[in-house]
Write a structure and sequence with these properties.
Farnesyl Diphosphate Synthase, mainly alpha, 2 domains
């Protein structure tokens, strides 16, 4: 009987060890999805998908992959360069990246090579040039352009928002439909406003570390309270542009569903009025994941319009 009991104890311990290992893997994958840049990169990829839906053109998944791998390459490069800064600011991300920081340069190189292979294989000459320019534009911020934020207020936010908003131009070139018209400009402005809200909000968590670097980010210059007011104003402008675009028939009627994003922003901006709000967690989840719901909203809008 003792032998049977010992065997049962061993089996139970093996199951317990397996369960613990699976929990660790699950925890790592969750942290990697959020802090490894995958959620944010998926959000940018879904911006491209949303542009495709707004232009009402066929979805080319290779283009979505190009955007994803280019974006995650840029995000991981920035995380690698900012690792020491994160160790005194964004502790959760720094703790996760520490697990494989020595391999991160290789991972960044793989992401970059994959994005370029896809771009050269599936893209046309114009999209290759513009795509490479956007990739370099993102990679050079940490090394070259970040210093300008010490002299120009909010340069980081304008730079990032402008870069990602330019995806609409890359989309048009990739699909051989490039032309500058009021619709393209309007969608660019809508994206720019959303991204200004998102990037400015995410900088709240970095106030202390950015102060040490003498960066003139919007949260530092405005202060938390005034920044939230400013972001509410940008959110209202977004609503006005959506309604105006639909009224002038520059946007399809179903794009009205994108106003859910404004409600989404009002929610976390209002919540952040409380000084105890965990801005870091909101930035890494709600804010970074906002654009993932855009294609869903547009598809819901299409179905609703068809029913009506």
């Amino acid at each position: 009987m003792n032998e049977i009991g010992n065997v049962n104890d061993v089996v139970f311990q093996d199951y317990l060890n397996l369960f613990n290992r699976l929990n660790k893997v699950k925890s790592f994958l969750k942290d990697e999805f959020i802090y490894g840049g995958h959620l944010a990169s998926l959000g940018v990829s879904f911006i491209a998908l949303s542009m495709i839906l707004l232009f009402d053109i066929n979805i080319k998944w290779e283009f979505i992959l190009i955007v994803y791998f280019s974006t995650i390459c840029i995000y991981n490069y920035d995380h690698y360069k900012e690792f020491r800064k994160d160790s005194s600011g964004n502790l959760t991300r720094a703790h996760h990246l520490k697990r494989y920081i020595r391999f991160l340069p290789l991972i960044i190189a793989i992401y970059g090579i994959v994005s370029l292979i896809l771009l050269f294989y599936f893209g046309n000459f114009g999209s290759m040039l513009f795509g490479i320019a956007l990739l370099l534009f993102g990679l050079l911020y940490t090394e070259k352009f970040k210093k300008i934020t010490k002299k120009i207020v909010g340069f980081k936010n304008f730079y990032t928002s402008f870069s990602i908003s330019s995806l609409i131009i890359l989309t048009a070139i990739f699909y051989n439909t490039f032309f500058i018209n009021c619709t393209l400009i309007l969608i660019f402005l809508l994206l720019f406003l959303r991204l200004m809200i998102n990037t400015s909000y995410c900088d709240i968590k970095d106030i202390e570390s950015d102060k040490k670097e003498n960066l003139l980010t919007l949260p530092i210059v405005f202060g938390r309270k005034n920044l939230l007011v400013f972001l509410h104003i940008l959110n209202i402008f977004f609503i006005v542009l959506i309604v105006l675009g639909i009224y002038l028939e520059l946007l399809p009627l179903y794009s009205i569903f994108l106003l859910v994003s404004s409600v989404y922003s009002f929610f976390y901006l209002y919540k952040t009025k409380n000084a105890n709000t965990d801005v870091g967690s909101i930035s890494s989840t709600l804010v970074d994941g906002e654009f993932i719901i855009w294609p869903v909203l547009l598809l819901m809008g299409k179905v609703f319009v068809m029913i009506m």
